[in-house]
Amino acid sequence: MTESGGPPKGPSKGPFDGPEQVRARLEETGYLVDDGLAVACFLALRLARPIFCEGDAGVGKTALAAALAEALDAPLIRLQCHEGIDASQALYDWDFPRQLLHLRAAEAAGVADAERLEGELYDRRFLVARPLLRALETQPSVLLVDEIDRADDEFEAFLLELLSEYSVTVPELGTLRAETPPVVVLTSNRTREVHDALKRRCLYHWFDHPGFARELAIVRRRLPGVAARLAEQVTALAQALRTEELVKPPGVAETIDWVEALDALGASEVDAELAVATLGAVLKYREDVERARGLDFGAVLSVDVP
Predict the structure, then answer these.
(1) What are the tens digits of pLDDT across the range 14-54?
(2) Which residue in 28, 38, 134, 139 has the fewest CB atoms around it within 10 Å?
(3) Which of 173, 164, 146, 165 is nearest to 90 (CA)?
(4) Residue 115 — pLDDT band, cuts 50, 70, 90?
(5) DSSP string, the chain
(6) Measured between alpha carbons, how far is residue 236 from residues 57, 113, 225, 285, 288 in Å?
(7) For residues 78 and 138, what is the distance between their CA atoms, to the nearest angstrom?
(8) What backbone torsions phi and psi does residue 127 show, to the nearest 5 degrees?
(9) Which sign does the torsion angle of CA 25, 22, 216, 288 carry?
(10) Quick check: pTM over 0.90?
């Protein structure tokens, strides 16, 4: 972290020679990627560009940031966006209690120089770094800006400015600039459209629900101890549920939860009755549960899985 002018270091070779190396390293962490995502991650690392991940909840957007952090042996710094979030919550704040204690201690010691006291009060040691500033100060690091679609337009504009220069100006301290930009992953569940200006700054990847074979591979990688037949059946059921008109189709995370719940019940395979009884592990809306109960689970389970 520097306080001088000038842009941060530009694109570098990075730790990987190509998308296949990225794919292999991410798979070592347990995160399986397709060709498009492997290329997007490689370019994000090589070009020092944020990667914007959009798609339904539960398809692996947030998990990508954790996998990248593990692959790069770097800390994951997470900023969870919400309605009303502002720069002070995301960037920095002053530690007022410590400043007050310092002021009282100085007064007790007989320090009367007001200018000196003011300078001491706004020293870097009293600055509380929030996620964005921590990411700028930590090299290397992976910054996850989760659910940016929940934030408002003003915060989105602020974030765009910060990601353009990877620096921030603290009036009392000057400009703080990252020597090396963090790896940035932004996610959106598309509850609203994120402005084009922010998307243009990023590399974009849309997360689809995976096909059967890839989803099954993910489940087996995450839950290696469960029965193979159970993993296959639940994956097939999750795929069938996504063909229904649900308020919230299950993501891979819910498939894993469902398999884990059935395994906890001691099941090595699932029948229609048990599937219906455990719908609460995979569906989170009453309307979806009611619709799912009308699905012929027996027919889905009777078909040989691919």
Answers:
(1) 688 899 999 999 999 999 999 999 999 999 999 999 999 99
(2) 28
(3) 146
(4) low
(5) -B-SSSPPP-----S-SSHHHHHHHHHHTT----HHHHHHHHHHHHHT--EEEEESTTSSHHHHHHHHHHHHT--EEEEE--TT--HHHHTEEE-HHHHHHHHHHHHHTT---HHHHHHHHTSGGGEEE-HHHHHHHSSS-EEEEETGGGS-HHHHHHHHHHHHHTEEEETTTEEEE-SSPPEEEEEE--SSPPPHHHHHHSEEEEEPPP-HHHHHHHHHHH-TTS-HHHHHHHHHHHHHHTTS--SS---HHHHHHHHHHHHHTT-SS--HHHHHHTGGGT--SHHHHHHHHTS-HHHHHHSPP-
(6) 19, 73, 19, 20, 17
(7) 13
(8) -90, 125
(9) positive
(10) no
Residues in the chain, overall count: 306
